[in-house]
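Sample pair:
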Amino acid sequence: MVDFTVAIPTYNGETRLPEVLERLLAAKLPLSDKLPLTKENFSWEVIVVDNNSTDNTAQVVKYYQANWRADCSLRYFFEAEQGAAYARQKAVEQARGKFIGFLDDDNLPTPDWVASAYAFGETHPQAGAYGSLIHGKFEAHPPDYIKSIACFLAIIDRGPLPHKYEPQQKLLPPGAGLVVRKRAWQQTVPKRLFLNHRGREAGLASEDLEVVLYIQRAGWEIWYNPQMQIYHHIPAWRYEKDYLISLMRCIGLSRHHLRMLRISSWQRPLFTLIHLFNDLRKLVQYWLKTWRASNSDVLVACERQLLLSILVSPCFLWKKRYLDWIYRPKYSQGMPLTETKLNLKNSPGNYASKTKVKQLK
């Protein structure tokens, strides 16, 4: 066991990883005047989870391993099953830290990020997860409409003081810069999440929020800690209308699942109907308000897509679950589902066929 693990899931990150690792090389220790810690009695590690990359990600990590700092290990793991949720689960299984701080390969931590993250967890024993203050590091000057949808790009500034996310607020921190208590994750989060972002064609996102919801639902506290700060590198193509529309679609189509996680099973049919009527009302009202808007108005197009996708989310997710159920017998061949998944994972040459299987749940 070590005190803190920094986990970096990555896909084809050979050009992005070096800057993240350089930032961690420059991390400042000892940690905090709030805790009696020094370099000698604080242990930490960095792990990189390669999510089936086809570039030189492994070679980049190997290069840094040969020149890494003496007070911290740098370890590499490979996860063949595509998807951010699988890469994060792999990180949790391999992490030796009491706390696990997640950085995407485009998240650049400040020198005291590790220090602030560990100190906060130690002084807040009921915190199961807590998020960072996230600045945008834009490749080019962003258009004005980005300010209105910044939270969907994981740019988060919720004030200068730490505060707890109350369940009734329905606000949660994103996965970028998120720190979880390993014990809380292991006790509450399923090994296979329903939401799993595999790219725009999958139609799903928000698997990081699903994780935090499971932890919160089990009674752990969820916090925002602005002393932890990262810079989220955002390339210019993420300002483009087509990308933003597809992002809003994925977020909206995932909304119903997150809503239902917040309530008991017996309440879900009633609340589904209530949400349907309310979502239809919001969409109609917004459409009437903006019907004169130009087709080139990116913000209006994004908000319309989000509202429409939220409205159809229950039907989309029902269809996905139904198709999962249809495909499941085809691959199980009479075996228990757990045995099927194990065989798919461990059998040589099965990855290509495995990608054709819908997510098993």
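The chain is about 40% helix and 15% strand.
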